[in-house]
């Protein structure tokens, strides 16, 4: 796709970041240089290269360069450290990591758990003072000495393109092995539902490139349609509309929490005259469309493993509460009960998906055959989400069947958070559940059982969390108890903990911080 766009519009602007711009031809040459550079580092087709960077042009050059070289890229959440970072890099068997200097220390901290890692490709020199031991360490800028001619490496549509990790729910997070065809189909379906035309201007909204929303649903559709893509480091509600106006954006990307946040911004005189016509999210908001006249929210449902399962085509009236119509060109969808019997229309059940074409979904959970077989049982992929269908093929998301949570736009595994908490020497066991957040997603509550004879405070636990887990994992609430509610076979009854909410001896981290600041 990149090569085709570069041949079609070599001098047209494509990528924008911090006031700088790159044409399609320039990005194509940068990606080719990175692909050649990998060869000098003895990284070959089929090897895995992790990208551990904040949003930046280097992220895109590395990703597209990996695709040219038929190297499998592994996007890593920039919040990750410790156990979760070691698990994902180790499970993916990465040979090299493209890394920001500020993250080098995190890699070196888990180096002894990464037997396949050989090389760090560092985009700046911030981590140069750290001892890398036997690792080969090179500068990303060294690729400039490589040729910018196109790379001649055979790439088939069924070849692996990425290992994209999803949140673990009943166990550690799983790496979805995505063929090239999966990513391309994701992009084609997105471009089709948004009715993208050549020369659109797509605003990234600060969505991280390690998410498929920003990459496969954002940048790849820009390549397909020879459109411009404005990359941001992070989301800013106050800068959103000024940047949309100055860029002339016609399309924006976002999670469902963004429209309510933008609605809280002070009214502007040009609210009803925005050029933005399409905003792809996962939930409809009539008030948003009314205030920003002409801007249409396009709802979709899908997962990293599947792609766009449902779509709301641009130009069709939305169905309130629906996440769109089933994408019948690509998928079959069934709502089933716990025994995989199809549910009647309007009855909630688990959303299951089956592709109509080969290689348009993930191939497997990498190095996890048991989990792969369980997900694809009875020849349908089980999403772990609950939904229902109406007579016209529109789907309605109900809730998450799995014990997963969502916070700040991130899917979170209670299992992985509990694993970290249980490492504390004073903790006997714990349970982490979601409680309602005033911002529309989940806040996290940890119920902690302290070992007999041990003592620990809320503040000490939060300090431990800060050192050992990403910020968005840190539970807002901590409650100490004598025991957890369990079934006779010792399974924790989390629904009881959820139903109890934040009552009782529950400490609120945000309220505590506010009182200290006051």
Automatic annotation (TrEMBL):
SUPFAM superfamilies: Acetyl-CoA synthetase-like (SSF56801)
Domain AMP-dependent synthetase/ligase: 3-366
Molecular function GO labels: acid-thiol ligase activity
Domain AMP-binding enzyme C-terminal intervals: 416-491
Gene3D superfamilies: 3.30.300.30, N-terminal domain of ligase-like
PANTHER family in the record: LONG-CHAIN-FATTY-ACID--COA LIGASE, NONRIBOSOMAL PEPTIDE SYNTHASE PES1 (EUROFUNG)-RELATED
Name listed for the protein in its UniProt record: AMP-binding protein
Species name: Sphingobium phenoxybenzoativorans
């Amino acid at each position: 796709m990149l090569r085709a766009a570069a041949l079609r519009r070599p001098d047209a602007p494509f990528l924008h970041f911090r006031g700088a711009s790159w044409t399609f031809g320039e990005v194509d040459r940068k990606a080719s240089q990175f692909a050649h550079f990998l060869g000098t580092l003895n990284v070959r087709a089929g090897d895995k290269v992790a990208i551990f960077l904040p949003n930046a042009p280097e992220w895109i050059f590395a990703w597209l360069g990996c695709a040219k070289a038929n190297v499998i890229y592994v996007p890593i959440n920039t919040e990750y450290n410790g156990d979760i970072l070691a698990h994902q890099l180790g499970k993916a068997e990465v040979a090299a990591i493209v890394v920001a200097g500020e993250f080098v220390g995190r890699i070196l901290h888990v180096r002894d758990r990464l037997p396949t890692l050989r090389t760090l490709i560092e985009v700046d020199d911030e981590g140069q003072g750290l001892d890398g031991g036997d690792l080969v360490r090179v500068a990303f800028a060294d690729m400039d000495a490589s040729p910018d001619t196109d790379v001649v490496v055979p790439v088939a549509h069924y070849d692996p393109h990425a290992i994209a990790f999803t949140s673990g729910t009943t166990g550690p997070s799983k790496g979805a092995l995505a063929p090239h065809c999966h990513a391309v189909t994701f992009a084609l379906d997105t471009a089709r539902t948004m009715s993208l035309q050549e020369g659109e201007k797509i605003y990234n909204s600060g969505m991280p490139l390690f998410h498929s929303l920003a990459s496969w649903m954002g940048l790849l559709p820009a390549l397909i349609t020879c459109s411009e893509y404005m990359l941001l480091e992070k989301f800013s509600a106050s800068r959103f509309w000024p940047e949309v106006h100055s860029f002339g954006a016609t399309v924006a990307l976002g999670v469902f929490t963004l429209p309510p946040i933008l609605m809280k911004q002070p009214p502007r005189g040009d609210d009803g005259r925005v050029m933005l016509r399409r905003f792809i999210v996962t939930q409809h908001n009539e008030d948003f469309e009314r205030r920003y006249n002409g801007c249409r929210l396009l709802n979709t449902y899908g997962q990293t493993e599947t792609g766009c399962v449902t779509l709301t085509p641009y130009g069709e009236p939305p169905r309130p509460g629906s996440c769109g119509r089933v994408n019948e060109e690509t998928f079959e969808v069934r709502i089933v009960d716990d025994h995989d019997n199809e549910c009647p229309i309007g009855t909630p059940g688990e959303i299951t998906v089956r592709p109509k074409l080969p290689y348009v979904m993930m191939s497997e959970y990498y190095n996890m055959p048991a989990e792969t077989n369980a997900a694809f049982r009875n020849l349908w992929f089980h999403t772990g989400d609950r939904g229902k269908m109406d007579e016209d093929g529109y789907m309605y998301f109900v809730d998450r069947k799995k014990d997963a949570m969502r916070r700040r736009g991130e899917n979170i595994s209670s299992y992985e958070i509990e694993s970290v908490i249980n490492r504390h020497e004073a903790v006997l066991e714990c349970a982490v559940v979601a409680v309602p957040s005033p911002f529309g997603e989940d806040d996290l509550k940890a119920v902690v059982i302290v070992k007999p004879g041990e003592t620990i405070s809320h503040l000490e636990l939060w300090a431990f969390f800060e050192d050992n887990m990403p910020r968005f994992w840190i539970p807002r609430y901590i409650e100490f108890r004598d025991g957890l509610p369990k079934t006779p076979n010792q399974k924790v009854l989390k629904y009881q903990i959820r139903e109890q909410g934040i009552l009782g001896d529950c400490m609120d981290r945000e309220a505590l911080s506010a009182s200290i600041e006051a």
